[in-house]
Amino acid sequence: MWKRMIVMLTVTLAIVAGLGFVKFKQVQSAIAQGAAFVPPPEAVTTIVASQEQWPSTLTAIGTVAAVRGVTVSADLPYAQRRWCAAEGIDQVVTLSDHKDMNFSDAFGVHVIDMRITQRALFVLDRDDVVQYAEYVPVMGNEVTFDAALTKARELV
């Protein structure tokens, strides 16, 4: 009886030791892979930026109201700041939709396959109702700023 007990314990101990050795090798391999891991390069969409000349003054009769422009993209805030600094842009409010893409989903500009925001232009009135919308179907094309300015002038 004792002999059977000792054989059973020896076999059980050998199986547990074998499984432990296999697991040890798996963990050792995973640690080696983690140490050799090189993070992928930062994904930044590129597009040719062109500077638009906005009129510094507008002729008006009556009241002049300010119009505010805001840029929303799926880029991270630091990428937006880096882009603005590289392009010499300092008078634009930039907002990031990277975290949850709520703006892109709400305005229909979320390119889901690429997780980016489609280029578009919206003009909202004082009640935040969209009065003008232009969606750019081709990634590298620009929006028509003249049409948006015309609509903005009508609303002011």
Low-confidence stretches: none
CATH class of the largest domain: Alpha Beta
Return the domain count. 2
**Helical amount among residues, as a percent range?**
25-40%
CA-CA gap between termini: 99 Å
H/E order of the elements? HEHEHEEEEH
Shape: rod-shaped
**Average pLDDT taken over every residue:** 82
Largest sheet: 2 strands, parallel
Q: Round the Cα radius of gyration to an integer and report it.
A: 30 Å
CATH superfamily of the largest domain: Glutaredoxin
Overall SS class: alpha+beta
Named at the architecture level, the CATH assignment of the largest domain is 3-Layer(aba) Sandwich
Count the strands?
6
Description of the structure:
The protein has helices at residues 2-35, 77-87, 102-107, 145-155; strands spanning 70-73, 93-96, 110-111, 116-117, 120-124, 130-135. It has two domains: 1-37; 70-155, Glutaredoxin, CATH 3.40.30.10. The strands form three sheets. Strands 1-2 form a two-stranded parallel sheet. It has 156 residues and is of the alpha+beta class. The chain has four helices and six strands. β3 (110-111) and β4 (116-117) form a beta hairpin. 40% of the residues lie in helices and 15% in strands. It is rod-shaped.
